[in-house]
Amino acid sequence: MKHEQWSSRAAFLLAAVGSAVGLGNIWRFPYVAGENGGGAFVLIYIGFVFLIGVPVLVAELTIGRKSGQSPINAIVEVAKESAANKKWKFLGWLGTFGGGLGLLSFYSVIAGWVMAYVLKAMMGMFDTIDKAGTHDILGAHMADGGTMLMWHLAFIACTVYIVGKGINAGLEKAVTFLMPILFLLLLVLLGYSMATANFGQAVDYLFTPDFSKIDGEVVLNALGQALFSLSVTVGTMLAYGAYLPKDVNIVRSAGLIAAADTGVALISGLAIFPLVFAYGLQPTAGPSLIFEVLPVAFGQMPGGAVLGPAFFILLTIAALTSSISLLEPAVSFFEERKDMNRWKSAIFGGAIAFAVGTLTVFSNNEWADFYPLAFLGIETIQGDAATFFKINDFAVSNLIMPLGGLGIALFAGWAVNRELLRKEMALPERGIFEIWHVLIKYVAPVALIAILYQGLS
Ligand code: PHE
Asked: Is the pLDDT score of 11 beyond 80?
């Protein structure tokens, strides 16, 4: 079937940056950097973005555009044209369902917390609150499975609504409206943090590498963060590439997307860590970092009553422009079947993510002591209790994504016809194309195998 196309290069870029910039930048990056020792982790993460992430991003956009189909069928079609094995399509399945919907299922739970925090901030619950107070608020929120479930549902419903409306009337319209607001709010927050006394300490923390903190696990976490943040390996960029007009320069777009995404992650770090230090909080707090840290800051700072709700609204927006891109691969795949239209597909995909997400919701309360992998002797993962939530996050970011990235690199580098890719990128034989091809064919696979091996052993 023929899918809609992005109406302009700018619309595509906003959508792709909207996908890349999300909870991964503002919620996940600061706490993962904090847990992994700061500066050295940040440096390795940036290296992976450009050495592995961007080449994979280019490959996905190119393969997507070449076929114009959903990720799964794009891989089938490009494999066929290259006379390669059709079994490569498992990569599309792994990305679309394991990666895309699997990630959406817990992404939307976190996004639900964020929405709940918009309301809490508006109601003035953070006024003059201290560390213990925010800890209690988060604890109470997490303990209440029913309310969490409702927010999870609300967020999935918003996602389904936008995706159901289609590429032009849904995705594109949402990002052109939301992304400028997002950038503006982020800059306001950064401006505020720059004025606090602890800004220099945050710069040091994020940019002074201490390599003694690096081990295989940290490197794997940096890779996971790079792939997660760029929205690669789970079908998203294959799907977004399929709607891309032929005259858009893919390599340049990929560079822009990566630069914007990394820029926003670093800006978020620079906006959040000064507050962490200023209010005597710990950078190693984990997933709860921004939920425990920021309310204290908002509750005490002048103007916090406005900035607090604004921040959580910002985060909701960032999450929404990403969640739609997590649902899109499955929806475009369902849509290619005769018996499914776009609305049906969106609702069906959303329902799957909602159902799986309930496990994440209850693993924070009712089932907090239930370790699904205990029968294999796995009760902790990287030092945290192996609840369903932890398993899901770890499996997606540290297994499915690196493996998916390895799969895409091997597929594009070894299985797909080189000329087919070069023509789709509209590049000359020498120069950038050659560099990309070496990166995707040799550098990315070797690095990915080494990192997976080191990080998991
Ligand atoms: N990149 C998004 C973020 O940083 C998450 C995401 C991953 C979205 C993969 C789509 C695909 O929040």
From this structure: yes
